[in-house]
Amino acid sequence: MGRSQARAAQAAVESREGELDVPNPKRRHSKTRTAKRRTHDALSPVPVGACPQCRESKAPHQVCPHCGYYKGRQVRAVEEA
């Protein structure tokens, strides 16, 4: 590299001091590659179990919204309909 090339390179670096170099992709991703990346993005259904107290459906490890029981004891008062 000659002196004039080195000076030009140094001047280019100094003029861009406040800027960020952000990498950009050289080519677009194919549809297959995009689909392969998105294979794990699907949502799974929420598990539902039966409440041992009232036999209504409820989410596991949650207080039953129908009877207010959790792990065999009442932890929340529920109004009767």
Which H/E pattern describes the elements? HHEEEE
How much of the sequence lies in strands comes to 5-15%
The poorly predicted ranges are none
Helix content: 10-25%
Shape: elongated
Which descriptors apply to this entry?
two-stranded antiparallel ribbon; elongated
Set down the secondary structure blueprint.
Blueprint: H1 3-15, H2 31-37, E1 49-50, E2 57-58, E3 69-70, E4 73-74
Antiparallel strand pairs: 1-2, 3-4
Can you put this structure into words, describing what you see?
This protein has helices at 3-15, 31-37, and strands spanning 49-50, 57-58, 69-70, 73-74. The longest helix is centred in the first third of the chain and has 13 residues, at 3-15. The protein has a domain at 45-81. The protein is built from two helices and four strands; from the N terminus they run ααββββ. The protein is of the alpha+beta class and 81 residues long.
